[in-house]
């Protein structure tokens, strides 16, 4: 074994080992402080890309679930309003049936017609004032709900035509109960209007069920993708803590090794005494 004073190889080896240990120690401390095992692209380039892609899908699905919930809310508002329309149309059936009967005085026919016209005005009011989040519920423009998982192939649009709500849209405009003949004609129109409202409510109900199913699927996807993202990017705290203890010990032993190697070099001076 040669003895040299120009280079302390054992000290250099120990210093290099300590440097590597300190780098690993800092990485573990960062993982503990952030809770993530991927804190930069250098940690795991492929893992970072996967985690980012999963994060984008989670964000899109989370908002899509909210979009679907908003769509459900609007449709439920429309259904509730149409339920009220059904109720007042049933009242109109009673009034029209009464007005269709002979033997009424002119004053009685007028009173029944006035009540019927008030019902038509209620329908107009419901159709024009019902809104959801500031948006008119009854509109010629179909209500659309957009959902997506962040990809082109995962995009979907659900469209529901609620339509406008007026006496005209229900073929009741111009109906009167001023005579038995007119009342009987109005009665037929009212019955048809009830069927129209019921059919619209059925369409709305089907759309609500569809959006509810989409919401359930999206929420499940968010749960599964979040779990997958956690597996990719989240730090295993138990493992990191164990490694932290190991690197702390290695750092201490590394410094001790540097000290010992430097002390060993001092023995060369004894040869000169």
Describe the protein's topology.
Blueprint: H1 9-34, H2 45-99, H3 106-129, E1 131-132, E2 135-136, E3 143-147, E4 156-160, H4 180-233, H5 237-266
Antiparallel strand pairs: 1-2, 3-4
Helix pairs in contact: 1-5, 2-3, 2-4
Describe this structure in words.
The protein folds into two domains: 9-35 and 235-272; 45-233, f41 fragment of flagellin, N-terminal domain, CATH 1.20.1330. It contains five helices and four strands; from the N terminus they run αααββββαα. The chain has 273 residues and is mainly α. It starts with 8 loop residues before the first helix and ends in a 7-residue tail after the last helix. The strands form two sheets. It has a two-stranded antiparallel sheet with strand order 1-2. It has helices at 9-34, 45-99, 106-129, 180-233, 237-266, and strands at residues 131-132, 135-136, 143-147, 156-160. The mean pLDDT is 85.
Helix content: 55-70%
Strand order across the largest sheet: 1-2
Low-pLDDT runs: none
Number of helices: 5
Tell me the β content: 5-15%
Describe the sheet with the most strands.
Answer: 2 strands, antiparallel
CATH class of the largest domain: Mainly Alpha
What is the residue-mean pLDDT, rounded to a whole number?
85
Our count of domains comes out at 2
SSE pattern, N- to C-terminal: HHHEEEEHH
Number of β-strand runs: 4
- For the record, the CATH architecture of the largest domain stands as Up-down Bundle
Q: How would you name the oligomeric state of the polypeptide chains in this document?
A: single chain
């Amino acid at each position: 074994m040669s003895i040299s004073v120009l280079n302390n190889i054992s000290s250099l080896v120990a210093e290099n080992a300590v440097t590597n240990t300190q780098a690993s120690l800092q990485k573990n401390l960062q993982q503990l402080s952030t809770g993530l095992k991927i804190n930069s692209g250098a940690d795991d380039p492929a893992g970072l890309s996967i985690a980012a892609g999963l994060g984008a899908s989670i964000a899109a699905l989370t908002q899509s679930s909210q979009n679907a919930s908003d769509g459900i809310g609007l449709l439920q508002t429309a259904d509730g309003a149409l339920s009220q329309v059904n109720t007042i149309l049933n009242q109109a059936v009673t009034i029209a049936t009464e007005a269709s009967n002979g033997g009424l005085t002119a004053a009685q026919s007028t009173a029944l017609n006035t009540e019927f016209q008030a019902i038509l005005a209620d329908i107009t009011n419901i159709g024009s004032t019902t809104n959801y989040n500031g948006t008119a519920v009854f509109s010629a423009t179909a209500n659309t709900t957009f959902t997506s998982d962040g990809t082109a192939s995962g995009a979907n649009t659900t469209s529901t035509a609620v339509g406008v709500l007026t006496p005209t849209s229900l073929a009741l405009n111009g109906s009167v109960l001023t005579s038995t003949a007119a009342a009987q004609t109005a009665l037929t129109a009212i019955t048809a209007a009830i069927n129209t409202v019921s059919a619209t409510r059925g369409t709305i109900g089907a759309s609500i069920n569809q959006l509810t199913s989409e919401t359930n699927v999206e929420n499940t996807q968010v749960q599964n993708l979040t779990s997958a993202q956690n597996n990719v990017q989240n730090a295993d705290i138990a493992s990191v803590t164990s490694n932290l203890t190991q690197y702390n010990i290695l750092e201490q032993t590394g410094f001790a090794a540097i000290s010992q190697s430097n002390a060993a070099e001092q023995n060369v001076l004894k040869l000169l005494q």
